[in-house]
Design brief:
Radius of gyration: 15 Å
Strand content: over 45%
Shape: globular
Number of helices: 2
Number of domains: 1
CATH architecture: 3-Layer(aba) Sandwich
Strand order of the largest sheet: 4-5-8-12-11-10-9
Order of helices and strands: EEEEEEEEHEEEEH
CATH class: Alpha Beta
Distance between the termini: 17 Å
């Protein structure tokens, strides 16, 4: 994947992956921590250090940044194909909303869903934006029952994102 460099100033984080052309800036919520090893293709994952509980099961709210090569698709086509894949990949999901957005003067989309993971319901808000030759997907996720606790901080982080 390349060599990962990270610069942090308080809750502002700049991430650069040398040799990949990928990089991102995001202001995560105060007190959150970054995973030492981001899973899969994620550039970074930020976690709330205190888990929430539903059905006596812990779940840690998180924000994940992923950059994917932009095939010969427009942003609208990419979001539309992703929307069609949601019920296939996550059968017990429900699309709450999808709306155009703008980030750093570039068009984007906000996609919000709920889905079941075992006995608990999770909620996610994704910002999808095309930047140069990549699609960036920033996902904020928490227990649905605790969503309101994080909604403002999640939106501030999504609004701060810059590739």
């Amino acid at each position: 994947m390349g060599i990962k460099y990270r610069v942090a100033l308080g809750s502002m984080v700049l991430i650069a992956l040398v040799g990949t052309g990928c990089g991102a800036y995001l202001q995560h919520p105060d007190g959150w921590t970054e995973a030492e090893q981001a899973p899969g293709d994620a550039l970074a994952v930020f976690y709330n250090p205190e888990p929430d509980f539903s059905e006596e099961l812990p779940f840690t709210a998180k924000i994940t940044i992923v950059a994917e090569p932009a095939p010969d698709l427009t942003l609208e086509e990419y979001v539309s194909s992703s929307k069609q894949l949601i019920p296939v990949l996550v059968p017990e999901s429900e699309l709450i909303g999808m709306s155009p957005s703008e980030i750093g003067g570039r068009p984007g989309y906000l996609v919000e869903t709920t889905f079941q993971q075992g006995p608990v319901t999770l909620r996610s808000r994704q910002l999808c934006v095309a930047w140069d030759d990549k699609f960036y997907v920033i996902t904020a996720m928490a227990l649905d029952t605790h969503w309101d606790k994080y909604a403002g901080a999640f939106q501030q982080s999504l609004d701060s994102f810059r590739p």
